[in-house]
Predict the structure.
Amino acid sequence: MKRVRSANKNPKCDPSRAKRIVIVDDHPLFRKGLEQLIHSNDGLAVCGEAGSAAEAMDVIRRIAPDLVIVDISLPGANGIELIKNIRAEFSKLPILVLSMHDESLYALRSLRAGAQGYVMKQEALANVLTAIQQVFDGRPYLSPAMSAKLIVSYAEASDGKAAATDNLSDRELEILELIGKGREVREIAKELHLSPKTVETHRAHIKEKLNLANARQVTRFAVQWLDARSA
């Protein structure tokens, strides 16, 4: 029987005492550090945690939290797929993404999937508490720089300018990013908890969707794409 991790021994997990939060991240040490940060605020309590999307749904159903914090990279279904699953079953449950992935690559997709905010792990820890409070106040959270980029992207979309990567799936976009960062197939497979064959299949789909001739062109496109996003 699968064991569901929980922090319900914390007396603050009584709904009358604090806002209850579930953390979904596949790194136990990071979850622990985030839990300590959240508990520095008396009005917040981490009452459950999960290391995968499947486990997360079990925890959420049992605890019925006030907020879920989700990472993008998870074993099996990734974070954006998890957001869609949460939204389908819990239409009003606030979701905040906290990820190592560049906000400019995944924030818009996360919001479209149903998240209320996006914070990069590289940001100051104080921003996490700010984001949590802002989401609880009913306002979406993005960095000022990302907010400006979204305005530009919406303007371009209204002019009919679609990005070449818009047709990629969430997993394909994740793999394209790692290719652009110089990762080899086996490294990508290990990082995303996939088989090398699955990564190669995704790379082939990327090649087809972007009308590229071979794997070398995929790599060149990925590097140039990342450089343009960071400019």
